[in-house]
Amino acid sequence: MSSASALRHLVLASGNPGKLREYQVLAAGHDLELQLLPGFADIAEFREDALTFAENAAGKALYYSRHCPDLVFADDSGLVVPVLGGAPGVQSARYAGLGASNDARIAKLLSTLQGTHEAGRAAYFVCVIAVALRGRCLAVVSDKVDGRILESPQGTCGFGYDPVFYFPPLARAFAELNLEEKNQHSHRGKAFRRLIDVLQ
Q1: What is the C-alpha to C-alpha distance for residues 96 and 94, in angstroms, rounded to an integer?
Q2: Please, what are the domains in the chain?
Q3: Disulfide-capable partner of 131 in 6, 17, 32, 73 (CB 3.0 to 4.6 Å)?
Q4: What is the mean pLDDT of residues 46-57?
């Protein structure tokens, strides 16, 4: 495979079509073809149990790249609240227990922060993306977006912790941003644009 063709074709280590669509929007205009990993559901699941986003992303990219001849990329992302020692962190999706809903995770976060003054509600979203080829890691990039945790949810767009993540530059919660605004400012959008720069 030539480097030119590799740059045009990236395989997402996921079986989630929603996540693929999100990345396809971010890749628009960059002459990139993205697809889900063929046969993803038939491959034993990679356990994301490392202590850092970078280890989880790189481990996942390396693992699934052994099942595919093309460039494979994987991400790990989450919410970090410094006053909570970095929680939810890599446990963002499991913060309220396995299988818990977004509402349950948000409720636990707000309960934990109850009574915390504004400065202590500082938080940031982080996204790490790794790309690998046939068991060899080629790049790991990351980016983040700073904000603070609201006292109650606002907005109906987005997912995860978006309704309680206030973004000061636009004076709105992430769940109140439209798709274009979210892609421009989100941790995932910024990290993916960084990946494109590295690959090119």
Answers
A1: 6
A2: 3-199 (3.90.950.10)
A3: 73
A4: 95
